[in-house]
Amino acid sequence: MNCSRRLTDTLYWVGANDRRIALFENVYPVPRGVSYNSYLLLDEKTALFDTIDQAFTHQLLENVSSVLDGRSLDYLIVNHMEPDHCASIADILFRYPGVKIVCTAKAANMMKQFFEFDVDQYVVPVKEGDTLSLGVHTLTFVMAPMVHWPEVMVTYETTEKILFSADAFGSFGAINGNIFADETDYKNQWLPEARRYYCNIVGKYGPQVQALLKKASRLEISMICPLHSLVWRKDLDWLLEKYSRWSSYEPEEKTVLIAYASVYGHTEQAADAIAARLAERGVPNIAVYDVSKTHPSYILADAFRCSALVFASITYNNGIFCNMETLLHQIAAHNLQNRTVAFLENGSWAPVSVKHMTDTFASLKNMKVLEESLTIRSSLKNCQGDCLEALVDSIFQSLA
Ligand code: FEO
Description:
alpha/beta, Metallo-beta-lactamase, Chain A, Rossmann fold, seven-stranded mixed beta sheet, 14 helices, 23% strand, binds MU-OXO-diiron, FprA family A-type flavoprotein, Metallo-B-lactamas, RibonucZ/Hydroxyglut_hydro, ODP_dom
């Protein structure tokens, strides 16, 4: 069954939705699934922009065949060689042997790593600023290394002003009929998953995303076609501002995220006490997470949103509790910067987790670690009320 979608008079979405997948990249929970986007442009020449995950190749081939309606496929533009977008290349070549593959030299090398076919026979290598005329439409190729792999480019179509943006501007979540972002309640229904996708997949590469945004600012863009999730044709400035903020590691809100590791509930109680006192001081949109219950990808994404971060961990095996250790490692690995950080530790005989947590963050830029930390011995006692208030005050003042 042809499941393609017409986006403009000449451009079609020919991808697929995957709601069966549990873990994207075998790491990230995707309870709302994910889409693998591929686009087909019809002109004097025809061009397919990227392929999709192997599991849905049959759907791609059916969509492409239906939209081509007997025409040949002239070009396959490969913007990104990660298998969720490149896995169907060999199947496309088998079905359309006359096709030329347009990609960077690095992408061609990766193609040789992933596939057995004679890559050089098919590839037309392109570099920054090269163009390709399809007839009425002209493609310009823009290099975007490390957004999210080194071979990545994006493609700008100059006539309809469409940016095929590879992984940039995507989101977790399958497309539920409404394929344009402006057809959805995006800020409420999609933004958290778009943020989680960005921070976890591309968040480490902020400077490279900034470089792409700089190039994009010189283009007049009427539509953004990412490799995952919804297509953008309105409110592009809002989306670009979000990407500018995330990629520069600037928080979206002056508020507090509290992540705690607790085995018997005493550390959780302290985290709740801090959250309640901050709320009483008027702090909105506070986030509290149990690191043993919430996948770190969600907490990392909210850490990109919040300006102050509080980590409360029991001491475990003379170190940080394992799930907290994973979270802190993820935050450090994604280069989060420009935050106020506070630590709280608990230990019945030798609390040491503050020292270890502080060490984990030592390499991160512009992290202001508050001097006021809090040590609990087994449970937070009433006599520690002043220390708790001092910590809360210090966190609160950081929001000013
Ligand atoms: Fe959706 Fe970097 O692949």
